[in-house]
Design a protein that fits this description.
alpha/beta; Udp-n-acetylmuramoylalanyl-d-glutamate--2,6- Diaminopimelate Ligase, Chain: A, domain 1; UDP-N-acetylmuramoyl-L-alanine:D-glutamate ligase; Protein-Tyrosine Phosphatase, Chain A; six-stranded mixed sheet; 17 helices
Length: about 450
C-alpha cells in the first residue's frame, strides 16, 4: 500500500470524514473487510453481507489497529463515509494502480484458477516482487483489496478474476486493466447464472481477453475448444498453451506419475525444454502448471527458471486437495472449497491414484448451479465413484446427492453407499466408518459446508 492520508483517500473516493481527529493521519498498510484480519495502519472496509454487517465491527477493527473505517454511515470511530463502500474500495484501488506500474496479470476459468494463481505467484516471486490474490478473493471486493497491497516495488500483480455472471469480468478489468490475460478453461461452474450452456460461460470468460491492450498477451488453452474460440475477441498477441494440441507454444510432454500421485513432465517453451516434478497431487495439475508457465514465458522468464519454480511450488490455499495424514494412518483429502463436475472428476481420480491399494471413502455433497443438467451430472459422479473403485460413498443432502448415491449403488461395483441428510450426519457416519489406513475424500460446493467435516476428520484426536 502506498501511504496516503485520510484526507487524500477522502478526496479520491468522495468520502465525508466523520469522527476523524486528524485528516493527515497516514494509511500505510493493506485494507481488510474482515475485522479479524485488520493490519495495524490499514483501512477497514465495512461491507454489509447477507449474514454479517461490517459496520457492527467497526470499533473492533479500530481497536485492532485500523486507522479508520470506510463505511456507509457514521460508526462512532474515525470513518470515511461514502454512499457505496464496494464502489469506493474499487475507486481507491484504481487510483492506487495509477500511481504504481506493475505488470498486471489477470486469470480466469471455470476450474483451477486459485491453484494456477498460486503456482504462478511462486514462480514469479523468485524473479521479482509479486503481489497475488489471497486465497480465492477474486470478486468485486477481493480484487481491489489485492490491488491495494501493491506498492512502488511491486513488479507483478497477479489477479485471479472470478465471474458469476456476464459483465463481472468487464467490471473487474475496468478496476485493474491487465496487460496479460490467461484463460484456463470453460466448464459448468456458474452455468445457471450465465445463461445455461458452455457458450454462455465462454462469452463471460472472454471478457478478460477483450480488455487486453494491443501490446498485451492473451494466453489461451489450446486444448479447450471454447477457449480457442476467444482468439478472435482480442487485440493482444495470442499465445497457445496446453498438453495435447500440436500448435501450443508452451506445452507439457512426456507426462508421467511419480510417488504421491504427483505429475512429472517436460516443459517445452520457445526457449527450450526443462524437467518439472510437481509437488501437488493429481495429474490434472499439469494443465494448471503449463498455464502458469505460459504467463511466465511471455513475461521473459527462461524455461529452466520456470521449471525450477514450478517444481518447488506447494499448495497455498486450503480446501483444494489439501492432504492431511493422521497419526492413525488415515489420510484426509479436503477438496471441499467448491465443486463442479470437472473438479469432482479430477479430485476423485487424484484420490484414487494417491490411495493405491488403501481403502477409499468419498464424502460428497451437491455441486451447485448446474441448471437443468444438475441431476444427470450428479448421476455421472455416482457412476464414476463406482467405476474408480471407491469402497464407500457417503452422499450428503437431499435431491441430487441421493441420485448420486443411487447411481453408485446400482452400478453393481460393490461400493457401500450411505445417504445422510446434513453435515452433522456426514461427520458422525464418516468418523464411525473410518479405519486405520483409509483415505477419505471430502468434496461439495462451498455452500454445503463439508469443509467443516474435512477439518474435523483431519483434527488430531482429543
Amino acid at each position: 500500500m502506498i501511504p496516503m492520508t485520510l484526507a487524500e483517500i477522502a478526496r479520491v473516493v468522495g468520502a465525508r470524514l466523520c469522527d476523524v481527529p486528524d485528516p493527515r493521519v497516514l494509511v500505510t498498510a493493506p485494507s481488510a473487510v474482515d475485522s479479524r484480519e485488520v493490519v495495524p495502519g490499514g483501512l477497514f472496509a465495512a461491507t454489509a453481507g447477507a449474514r454479517v454487517d461490517g459496520h457492527d465491527y467497526a470499533a473492533a477493527a479500530v481497536a485492532g489497529g485500523a486507522v479508520a473505517v470506510l463505511a456507509a454511515r457514521p460508526v462512532g470511530v474515525p470513518a470515511l463515509v461514502v454512499e457505496d463502500v464496494e464502489v469506493a474500495i474499487g475507486v481507491l484501488a484504481r487510483h492506487l494502480l495509477g500511481r504504481v506500474s506493475p505488470t498486471v496479470v489477470g486469470l480466469t476459468g471455470s476450474v483451477g484458477k486459485t491453484t494456477t494463481k498460486d503456482l504462478l505467484a511462486q514462480v514469479l516471486e523468485r524473479h521479482a516482487a509479486t503481489v497475488a490474490t489471497d486465497r480465492s478473493f477474486n470478486n468485486e471486493l477481493g480484487l481491489p483489496l489485492t490491488v491495494l497491497r501493491a506498492d512502488a516495488a511491486t513488479r507483478y500483480l497477479v489477479l485471479e478474476m472470478g465471474a458469476g455472471r456476464k459483465g463481472d469480468l468487464r467490471y473487474l478489468t475496468g478496476l485493474a486493466p491487465p496487460r496479460v490475460g490467461l484463460v484456463l478453461n470453460v466448464g459448468t461452474a456458474h452455468v445457471e447464472r450465465m445463461g445455461g450452456g458452455p457458450a454462455d460461460v465462454a462469452e463471460a470468460k472472454g471478457e478478460l481477453v477483450e480488455a487486453l491492450p494491443v501490446d498485451g498477451f492473451a494466453l489461451l488453452n489450446a486444448d479447450d475448444r471454447y477457449v480457442r474460440g476467444m482468439a478472435g475477441r482480442t487485440r493482444a498477441q495470442v499465445v497457445w498453451y496446453g498438453r495435447s494440441a500440436g500448435d501450443a507454444q508452451v506445452r507439457a510432454e512426456d507426462v508421467r506419475m511419480v510417488e504421491g500421485a504427483r505429475a512429472a513432465f517436460a516443459l517445452v517453451t520457445p526457449g527450450g525444454r526443462a524437467p518439472v516434478e510437481l509437488g501437488l497431487v493429481g495429474e490434472h495439475q499439469v494443465g494448471n502448471a503449463v498455464a502458469a508457465a505460459a504467463v511466465a514465458t511471455v513475461l521473459g522468464l527462461g524455461v529452466a527458471e520456470i521449471a525450477e519454480g514450478l517444481s518447488a511450488a506447494r499448495r497455498r490455499s486450503g480446501g483444494r486437495l489439501e492432504v492431511v495424514d493422521r497419526v492413525d494412518g488415515v489420510t484426509v483429502v479436503n477438496d471441499a472449497y467448491n465443486a463442479s463436475p470437472e473438479s469432482m472428476r479430477a479430485g476423485l481420480r487424484a484420490v484414487k491414484a494417491l490411495a493405491g491399494v488403501r481403502r477409499t471413502v468419498a464424502v460428497l455433497g451437491a455441486m451447485g448451479q448446474q441448471a437443468d443438467a444438475s441431476r444427470a451430472r450428479h448421476v455421472e459422479v455416482g457412476r464414476l465413484v463406482a467405476e474408480l473403485g471407491f469402497d464407500v460413498l457417503i452422499a450428503v443432502g437431499e435431491g441430487d446427492p441421493v441420485a448420486m448415491a443411487r447411481a453408485a449403488e446400482s452400478s453393481g461395483a460393490g461400493v457401500a453407499v450411505h445417504a445422510v441428510e446434513d453435515v452433522a450426519g456426514a461427520l458422525g457416519l464418516a468418523a464411525a466408518l473410518l479405519e486405520a489406513g483409509d483415505v477419505v475424500f471430502v468434496k461439495a460446493s462451498s455452500e454445503v459446508g463439508l469443509g467443516a467435516v474435512a477439518r474435523a476428520l483431519a483434527a488430531p484426536p482429543g
